[in-house]
Design goal:
alpha/beta; 2 domains; three-stranded antiparallel β-sheet; 11 helices
Length: about 400
């Protein structure tokens, strides 16, 4: 590298254009800021896009994951199988139902839950599986749903990273027998600031979710202040305040219109990184499984190979930061978090593949507004570090 860039290159930025801004302004001028017609339209458009029968807008993916389990009847005394290689929300929401999360180690090649190991953790108390589509890579859904069918388990797919991902030619969310939860957080491929969506082909799950998401209020009450609406409503269940609102949906509608274009740029950047790093023994590039027809490249996660690199992961991140490059780590394993270690007695060594993954991964900048010079700067910085510190 000739010199360090003058400005900091963030790890992630949302891609917001005048189209989104105009739609939000139009929503503000409409006077309908809470859940309303734009939310309903976004739900409809999103369901059509992913190929699901139903879509229910939420204020977060966390809410969607929680509602999915509650709607499926998961509760105290139950066990739910998931992966520790995820953000805490995936496991926290299991606990919020009163159930117990049961962790399964990851596939060391993909970072996704080891589908072959799930059945070993099934007990008479097991009621559901929450597989996480890590970084945009699809889990082995055939095996997962095979175990679910064998033991009568509900499957709640965590697709916070997987909008646009395809498994064996089918978009995640299309034809799913259980439910699928998406995130629209500011860093996601489709961003509404905060927000999420639950999709399902199950009429009963969808109907119950629509009630639970707004205090347990009868599902027709969302428009009670509009002409033709009624002030009368019923509380059908002890629900939650989890609904999406129209300002979020306004952003979502325009982001959805642009998603194909944004995804094309993500794929171009990921390809540039892979071509640059694939021949470096010190770097292990992401390799989607043969079943992942389309990787949505929510993240570009490289793994450092300690056998070929005289540099720790933490120091690698510090060196990039000194060159004004932002990075992240996905994820600190949930079982190593103090709340989980204190309650369940987890410790290092319990899930060795997950821990080895965590010790060596770095997420590089990847978002549609990165220009070619930005991408090349990241590539040159990584090359320099590997060149200077290879064993």
């Amino acid at each position: 590298m000739d010199k360090c860039r003058d400005t900091f290159l963030p790890y992630c930025l949302p891609d917001i254009t005048e189209s989104e801004i105009d739609e939000v302004v139009s929503t503000l001028k409409s006077g309908w800021l809470a859940k309303g017609p734009r939310t309903r339209l976004f739900e409809q458009k999103f369901a059509e896009y992913v190929g699901a029968k139903h879509a229910v807008g939420m204020n977060s993916c966390t809410a969607a994951l929680h509602i999915a389990l509650v709607a499926a009847g998961i509760g105290p005394g139950d066990e739910v199988i998931t992966s520790p290689m995820t953000f805490a929300a995936s496991a926290n929401t299991i606990i919020h139902t009163g159930a117990t999360p049961v962790f399964v180690d990851i596939d060391p090649l993909t970072g996704c839950i080891d589908a072959d190991a799930i059945e070993l953790k099934v007990t008479p108390r097991t009621k559901a599986i929450v597989p996480i589509h890590y970084s945009g890579q699809a889990c082995d859904l055939d095996k997962i749903y095979g175990v679910a069918e064998k033991y009568g388990l509900f499957v709640s797919e965590d697709a916070a990273h997987a909008l646009y991902t395809q498994y064996k030619g089918r978009m995640i969310g299309s034809g799913a027998p259980g439910s699928v939860s998406y995130s629209f957080y500011a860093t996601k491929n489709l961003a509404t600031g905060e927000g999420g969506m639950l999709t399902t082909d199950d009429d009963k799950i969808a109907e119950r979710a629509r009630v639970l998401v707004s205090h347990g209020m009868s599902k027709s009450a969302w428009n009670r202040y509009a002409k033709g609406g009624s002030w009368r409503y019923d509380i059908e269940e002890f629900g939650y305040k989890y609904n999406m609102f129209d300002i979020q949906a306004a952003l979502g509608l325009k982001q959805l219109e642009r998603l194909d274009t944004m995804q094309q740029r993500r794929a171009e950047i990921a390809d540039a990184y892979t071509r640059a790093f694939a021949a470096m023994p010190a770097i292990i590039v992401p390799k989607p499984s043969r079943d992942t027809t389309t990787h949505c490249w929510h993240l570009y996660v490289i793994r450092l190979n300690p056998a070929n690199l005289n540099l720790t992961r933490d120091r690698f991140i510090e060196e990039l930061a000194e060159r004004n490059i932002g990075t992240s780590v996905h994820f600190i394993p949930v079982h190593l978090m103090s709340a989980y270690a204190n309650r369940y007695g987890y410790k290092r060594g319990d899930f060795p593949y997950c821990e080895a993954w965590f010790d060596n991964v770095v997420s590089l900048p990847l978002y549609p507004t990165l220009n070619d010079d930005d991408v090349q700067y990241v590539i040159e910085a990584v090359r320099e570090l590997v060149s200077d510190c290879s064993r």
